[in-house]
């Protein structure tokens, strides 16, 4: 059956157009917010507009958010509606970024890129390394097959200890500090919640071996930035490759820009260009499911906040 | 049966010691060059000493060279002896370097590494790309499993068209120019011979799409360096990531150091540290085989020169 679906806000015209087309492609009726049963949110940076918009939507049952990281909606999540988000849809690209940053860091590619003279080979191989991944969502599930041929020993640290294909072991967060001393590479691929904010801090840096690298493709505020600056300055860890930072964007003159063992990429995990390419078909699929009363993809657990 | 094996020259003490130990571990009798039936060559940079040393070895049957690239011995290769080399033993590490350079180049990690300010996301994903690999030896065989999870379309270009597991197709070198226009990433992993010297030149650059990246983990002189400088300056190709250069080491002030889309790593494919770790056990194994009259590993085809 066809259902009434609105796209809002229209502050980001290119995304708005793609999402309107996705709704129509799925066979739903593209409608105003006043009539809408479903709402496709079309600007991740404008969460503050949500209360006003939803107040005009008396028939609203379902809200689709466009990105995987939905912390800006934390205050608005309300069980009167069904919430879905883009979790998993960029996972493949972000996993590729995670592997790229891991290899670049371990092999000192950031260092060589800055040279204008031949230097001595330094760095480590990823093959046979001990890798610890925080989080077991879509990114991790896409990253594990990329890591498999390297023969790494992989530990997943997650909220509960349910095991994951492709990992050597899965442990609950409470056991993180048992794993850290046996970690060559720590990859952050978890959701940002109250429990995981600042989870990587000076205690974590101290527990890691001095050669260990940290790769963050999750959210900047998983890492306590000042603690990271200290760890890099003191050589407590081998280095950090960050696709996300806190604050983000990282301001000019921030000490991280000057650390020789820090590689910063400007949130390239999913570029805007690849974003809409995968977002459009995903939204169409979910609108189809909404029309057919099928299970929706990317369901948000309102209590857990992701 | 035990056989007489010498290690020479002794110009590189650390390598010399490791190789002497490998000979003894294998149960052979470590002997002087005058008595030797087998000779383990212990300094890749001293090929010029070979005529003098071999002239004193009347019983010599077998020569083991320590590296995979044996072009410095091209003039000395002589069918009166059996020649073996280290081909394949560093392949896994070099394949890891090839993937690292590929991801770094496509994702602009070299560019971000040089920034001191947040910038716009640029770059491409490796996933689903069209990859062309020149050469089908040990490096390629180790690289294919690393590429498999990325879902790339992979063409191998080699001397003959015998197919390789993990590649979508294998074509002979004569068909290279059919493949180049459909290539996002060109990886050089072939041996250096008279036929492959300068194989990547301005014709190749012109045939590639403008966004294509080139990765060289083989030998610097596969690439005509001046043509590469022109191609990078003119934007004929997307960029080049080079673990080997011609000349090597690349001198200070060389134009390649200044090209924004050029990433140069100082022959990190196999570092000296990882080298001896894998070379020692390999030499032991081959000495054992020599003593037992078993097939030797890394046999050199004297006519082909690799």
Concise overview:
2 copies of one chain form a homodimer. Chain A contains 9 helices and 12 strands.
Structural class from helices and strands of chain A? alpha/beta
- Briefly, what CATH class of the largest domain in chain A? Alpha Beta
CATH architectural label of the largest domain in chain A: 3-Layer(aba) Sandwich
What is the subunit organization of this protein? homodimer
- Average pLDDT across residues of chain A? 95
Characterize the biggest β-sheet of chain A.
7 strands, parallel
CATH domain topology of the largest domain in chain A: Rossmann fold
The CA-CA distance between the termini of chain A, in Å, is: 29 Å
Architecture overview:
Two copies of one chain form a homodimer. By secondary structure, the first copy, chain A, is an alpha/beta fold. Chain A folds into two domains: 4-88 and 271-291, NAD(P)-binding Rossmann-like Domain (Rossmann fold, 3-Layer(aba) Sandwich), CATH 3.40.50; 91-264, 3-Layer(aba) Sandwich (Rossmann fold), CATH 3.40.50. Helices cover 29% and strands 15% of the residues of chain A. Chain A is built from nine helices and twelve strands. Chain A has helices spanning 13-25, 50-55, 91-106, 109-113, 138-147, 176-179, 202-207, 225-234, 272-291; strands spanning 4-8, 29-30, 38-41, 62-64, 82-84, 130-134, 153-158, 169-172, 185-188, 213-216, 239-242, 262-264. In chain A, the strands form two sheets. Chain A has a seven-stranded parallel beta sheet, covered by helices on one side. In chain A, strands 2-1-3-4-5 form a five-stranded parallel beta sheet, covered by helices on one side. The longest helix of chain A has 20 residues, at 272-291. The radius of gyration of chain A is 21 Å and the shape is elongated. The interface between A and B is large, with 50 and 50 residues.
